[in-house]
Write a structure and sequence with these properties.
179 residues; mainly alpha; globular
């Protein structure tokens, strides 16, 4: 394996390239709480909110998406750290997503995309487990295990996946930062 340049500028450049992979897996920066509820929340975009979490229409076993939004934000932050951090955050994100599945009261493509996203989280978890936990995500993020993964292919090609990502961004009131 070639030597890895660990200078801050190189890490920043790799982190930027890695963002294209993990942006779709980690939802890159969902805010810590959901955006305010509205009757058309799943149909029309609402502006991001930094307000306190509010209750949204029920899905799965929960009545709000606070835990999912928080897990997405944590996963976004974790890709800037170690593989171990990112793996733990991805597992928490997958668990939070399972709590709200199946999504109801959303367009069919969003509901279908949630399942595709859940599968992509499993794919990401399996890939992350192949690296040492203390490795820096930015140093391994260009590995073909990530760039050729089903998770990335889904993010680029699957319209329902993309619809779910858009819905999550709308629901969590995202601010994509750091990339």
């Amino acid at each position: 394996m070639p030597a890895v340049d660990h200078t801050p500028s190189t890490r920043h450049a790799r982190a930027g390239a890695l963002a294209s992979v993990f942006l779709v897996i980690a939802l890159a920066g969902c805010a810590s709480g959901p955006a305010p509820a509205s009757t058309a929340a799943a149909e029309t975009p609402s502006p991001p909110s930094s307000a306190s979490p509010t209750t949204l229409p029920p899905t799965g076993g929960l009545t709000d998406y606070t835990r999912l939004c928080e897990a997405n934000a944590a996963a976004s932050r974790a890709v800037r750290g170690t593989i171990g951090d990112s793996l733990a955050a991805t597992q928490a994100q997958a668990a939070a997503l399972q709590e709200v599945l199946p999504l109801t009261g959303v367009p069919a493509d969003v509901a279908a995309g949630a399942g595709v996203f859940a599968t992509s989280l499993t794919d990401a978890e399996n890939i992350l487990q192949q690296f040492p936990p203390d490795a820096i995500v930015a140093d391994v993020g260009l590995d073909e295990r990530f760039t050729q993964s089903e998770a990335l292919k889904s993010a680029m090609d699957d319209r329902s996946y993309q619809a779910f990502i858009g819905w999550m961004i709308e629901t969590c009131g995202t601010a994509i930062g750091g990339y």
